[in-house]
Specification:
Number of helices: 5
Strand content: under 5%
Number of domains: 1
Largest sheet: none
Number of strands: 0
Helix content: 55-70%
Distance between the termini: 23 Å
Pfam families: DUF6477
Order of helices and strands: HHHHH
Shape: globular
InterPro entries: DUF6477
Length: 93
């Protein structure tokens, strides 16, 4: 399995989606947004948080690619914002 940095670096997503996530970074507040994005309890370890976010993002991307009716670009963007922000947070520890 690739390490977390490699996984983040290797993500290939539409430019508009990535730009929206980058733009949303400035408003990301860990205490407010992370619990909502994860859908409940927040793990204590940064690596566990990132793995959950990778799983959520991968699921959203699968829905996008298969044109599933339940796909939400807003949800996908929220997950990407959290993923990028949490990765940056882990790097600063």
């Amino acid at each position: 399995m690739l390490d977390l940095m490699s996984q983040l670096t290797n993500l290939k997503r539409p430019k508009l989606l990535v730009n929206a996530a980058r733009f949303g970074q400035k408003d990301y507040r860990r205490k407010i947004h992370l619990k909502r994005v994860l859908g409940g309890a927040v793990p204590n370890k940064a690596s566990a948080i990132l793995m959950q976010l990778f799983d959520l993002e991968n699921h959203q991307n699968t829905l996008r690619k298969t044109r599933d009716a339940t796909y939400s670009a807003a949800r996908h963007t929220d997950v990407l914002i959290a993923l990028i922000a949490e990765h940056q947070h882990k790097q600063s520890l």
